[in-house]
Design a protein that fits this description.
The protein is an alpha+beta fold. It folds into four domains: 210 residues, no CATH class; 188 residues, no CATH class; 262 residues, no CATH class; 171 residues, no CATH class. The chain is 55% helix and 16% strand. It has 27 helices and 26 strands. A hairpin with a 2-residue loop joins strand 11 and strand 12. Helix 2 packs across helix 9, helix 12 packs antiparallel against helix 24 and helix 22 packs across helix 24.
């Protein structure tokens, strides 16, 4: 039976390739996900281990809270503690360092990194033993207030060499420095893609606003003193709020932070892998179902000469296992290539993963085998079991094209399940905020489609059979109606891909429209100043410069910080409420928006969630300073929460007392009444010429930029989901190839009675189009309904408007018809070339 199974694989190379590809794509996603995750984990472990290689102990301010396993940002500590630490017995070297915001400009004054990874500045040039893998590529370390170093990636990209003048945007504006050195991190040219400007400690403290403080103290132990002992000794001398930890612990934290930032790719790729494997399982099941039907005579003969049912079952499962093993091998290679490709993609968006060897862990091999072989064998199990029921008498019957009329009971059950799912989706769409029920209803509707698939295939055939007698559509419809289960299974594979793409399209379009409305809602500002890309913020001096201009009436600065409000992760905005009403419409609320020290204003929805009202107290835990009790003095409408991206406002005094950073995140500008906005914008642009990291937007541009981000996300997701559609297309091709082989005698007879090759090709193409349209129509219908319900379920995530992209969905339908034609090219050509004599010859 093993030899027979292997022979069956060799008989049709095209079928083997198509079925293998259907599973290999899913295996590639799974294995690629694990390879990427393991490789990046290994790379960042090596990077941070290298950076802290000689650091035995680190002293820093204790974080106020831990969120999702990671510590929040800590405050600087007094620089005097460096001397205190140095005096502890067992300390060989103690050195303070600071890190902050700095944006490098190229020779034309354009930001080197407008978005993506961070733009940092740090102190360099201290004890070489504490530098670890951080090293000079050329030049020397900076000395004095006019010198700086930059990372090798930035230097190469901007064509800087030692001796050039480099302009750097700091919190107080743009300043020129002489480039005296170019730095790197081991084999990497940057720290995970971040730009890095280096200054000596005194200069770094001055330009980063850390005068008299340091962010951390790095310590080297004397010979014979362990890091654990030194942690305890130093910890005993430190004041409250300062913690001591080992260098190894700090390295683990740094690596874990980077790995957490990239973990989203793992989750996304695994989701796409699940979709591809589900589609592939339909292809495998359909393929083996057709093969078993075509081999009834062969299986009957095997049973007649003594083969047991177990042997028949085993032979088919061996054949499926061989396909699974081949798919696993191909998928593993594809997964490694996928991981390498994603690393290059990350580099393009500014995230540099340190170079290291590809990590192919045992779990990756096990997962690939489990997915490749497991899914294939499970999908083939039902057809294999059906083969064991073939009686020996089947060996005496002539081979004929298979037919399956389906079951009226199955159609009735399918209609009930499908109706239940549809009603559930309608109910979820009406009720809103029903995520688990939306998922359950979508799954129920899809199961109903699968069960009632043959009935839908027959209905499609009836609709297409109204052409002239003997016409191509009528013949194609007859072929679909003759094997409705086969046609339905082929169509359902496409249904999955199209349904997911359609649901994403509806949800993304709804998000796009909601973002536009949310950003524009409550906005009264004429201009909005923001940092380029994902920059850290704006220098407060920029707002000061704009405030002094003629034609500008009001300037409101918004400063942001992460925090916890009653234990829930949130964003706090520090703002002066004096002119807030001229640039923001906070709607009708309760209380007084005076924002005196010790007070907080909360948006209505969050106030309801927290169960507080004016006069109540909430606990706000700042990352740097810890918990503070604030009194709710105002509850405002949710009108402007989309524009300011927060539901909590505090006074500038409270913000400055609890947050070290002085950078603005957003500056809202209102022009004086009657002033020409074009002229005012030009005036503001000239005033901010020294701040190339600032973008100036009017309300329309702000809305357009927000919607563009949503469009980019939709494009990326759709591109990845199209791989599942590709698998479904392979399924259509596979079904048509098997159908042509099955109908060899019928095709020969058609040719013998006068059908031309062109007519034969037309019939096959139209059969393919019918199956593609069945899959597309059901997929678009299910996806649209699921997308509407999902959009209504995501109101808490900012989707306030449901929008259906009708034109885009119709385009999907047209593309599906084209796909049906393209998928049939090979099978149709094969069908038209059937040899008449061979086809008519008896078996």
């Amino acid at each position: 039976m093993l030899r027979l199974a292997l022979r069956n694989l060799q008989m049709n190379t095209l079928r083997l390739i198509l079925t293998t590809a259907a599973i290999a794509i899913g295996v590639a996603f799974v294995s690629g996900t694990f390879v990427l995750s393991d490789t990046t984990d290994k790379a960042f472990d090596q990077l941070y281990d290298g950076l802290t290689a000689n650091t035995d102990v680190v002293v820093r301010s204790q974080a106020a809270y831990t969120d999702n396993g990671f510590q929040s940002e800590a405050r600087p500590i007094p620089a005097d503690l460096v001397r205190t630490v140095a005096a502890v017995p067992g300390v060989a070297v103690a050195e303070g360092s600071v890190t902050g915001f700095a944006l490098l400009l190229d020779k034309t004054g354009t930001p080197i990194q407008p978005g993506g990874a961070p733009t940092l500045a740090t102190s360099v040039g201290g004890n070489a033993a504490l530098a670890g893998d951080f090293s000079l590529r050329s030049g020397r370390m900076p000395r004095g207030p006019a010198e700086a170093t930059i990372d090798a990636r930035s230097a190469t990209g901007a064509s800087y060499v030692v001796g050039d003048t480099v302009r750097i945007v700091l919190s107080d504006g743009t300043h020129p420095f002489t480039l005296v050195g170019i730095t790197g991190f081991g084999d990497s040219d940057s720290l995970a893609g971040a730009t890095l400007a280096g200054f000596d400690l005194a200069t770094a403290q001055r330009v980063l606003g850390r005068t008299g403080t340091v962010d951390q103290i790095s310590v080297i132990a004397r010979d014979g003193v362990t890091s654990g002992d030194l942690v305890a000794r130093i910890g005993a001398t430190m004041p409250h709020g300062v913690e001591t930890l080992s260098g190894a612990t700090l390295a683990s934290e740094g690596a874990a932070g980077m790995q957490s930032g990239l973990a989203i790719f793992t989750q996304v790729l695994l989701a796409f892998a699940a979709v591809s494997l589900l589609v592939g399982s339909f292809v495998i099941w359909n393929t083996f179902n057709v093969l078993v039907a075509q081999r009834r005579r062969e299986v009957g003969l095997l049973r007649a000469v003594g083969a047991t049912r177990r042997q028949v079952l085993g032979g088919i499962l061996v054949e499926s296992a061989a396909i699974g093993l081949l798919a696993t091998a191909v998928g593993l290679l594809g997964g490694i290539g996928l991981a390498v490709g994603i690393r290059r993609l990350l580099l393009l968006v500014g995230v540099e993963v340190p170079s290291t060897t590809v990590a192919l862990e045992p779990r990756t091999l096990i997962a690939a085998l489990a997915v490749g072989v497991g899914v294939t064998m499970v999908a083939a199990a039902v057809p294999a079991w059906a083969a064991t029921r073939v009686a020996p008498i089947e060996a005496l019957r002539d081979a004929a094209p298979t037919t399956d009329d389906g079951s009226s009971r199955r159609g009735a059950v399918g209609a009930v399940v499908l109706s239940t799912g549809i009603l559930g989706l309608l109910a979820c769409a009406a009720a809103g905020d029903q995520r688990p029920l939306t998922a359950l209803a979508s799954l129920t509707a899809f199961v109903g489609l699968v069960i009632s698939g043959p009935s839908l295939a027959r209905g499609t055939a009836r609709l297409a059979s109204h052409g002239r007698r003997g016409g191509g559509w009528r013949m194609a419809a007859r072929n679909v109606a003759r094997s409705p289960r086969r046609a339905a299974a082929t169509a359902m594979a496409l249904t999955i891909g199209v349904a997911v793409v359609s649901a994403v399209a509806v949800t993304a379009t709804s998000l796009r429209e909601s973002v536009g409305q949310t950003v524009s809602a409550g906005n009264r500002a004429d201009f909005i100043l923001q940092p380029v890309g994902s920059g850290a913020g704006l220098s407060p001096t920029a707002a000061t410069a704009v405030r002094a201009l003629d034609g500008v009436a009001d300037v409101v600065e918004l400063k942001y910080s992460g925090a916890q409000v009653d234990g829930v992760r949130s964003t706090i905005v520090g703002v002066d409420p004096t002119d807030l009403g001229t640039v923001l419409d906070l709607g009708t609320g309760t209380g007084t928006l005076d924002l005196a020290p010790g007070s907080i204003a909360i948006a209505r929805t969050e106030a309801t969630t927290l169960g507080v009202r004016v006069g109540d107290t909430v606990e706000v835990t700042y990352p740097e300073s810890g918990p503070r009790a604030l009194t709710v003095t105002a509850v405002f409408a949710d009108t402007a929460t989309g524009l300011i991206s927060s539901s909590y406002l505090v006074s500038p005094t409270d913000f400055a007392a609890n947050v070290t950073s002085t950078l603005d995140r957003v500056v809202l500008v209102a022009a004086a009444p009657g002033i020409d906005l074009t002229t005012t914008r030009a005036t503001i642009t000239r005033a901010l010429a020294a701040y190339p990291n600032i973008t100036i937007s009017d309300p329309a541009q702000l809305t357009s930029a927000a919607q563009k981000s949503t469009d980019q996300l939709l494009g990326l997701v759709t591109a990845l989901l199209l791989l599942a559609v590709v698998v479904a297309i392979l399924g259509i091709v596979n079904t048509l190839v098997l159908s042509v082989l099955e109908r060899t005698r019928e095709l020969g007879l058609m040719r013998a009675v006068g059908a031309t090759r062109r007519q034969v090709r037309t019939i096959v193409r139209r059969e393919s189009v019918l199956m593609a349209l069945l899959g597309a129509v059901t997929g678009i219908a299910l996806g649209t309904l699921s997308g509407v319900a999902l959009s209504r379920a995501l109101t808490g995530e900012g989707i306030t408007t449901v929008a259906v992209p009708t034109t885009q969905l119709l385009l999907y339908l047209v593309v599906a018809a084209v796909v049906g034609v393209l998928a049939a090219i090979g099978p149709a050509r094969r069908a038209s070339r059937v040899d008449l004599l061979t086809a008519m010859a008896p078996d």
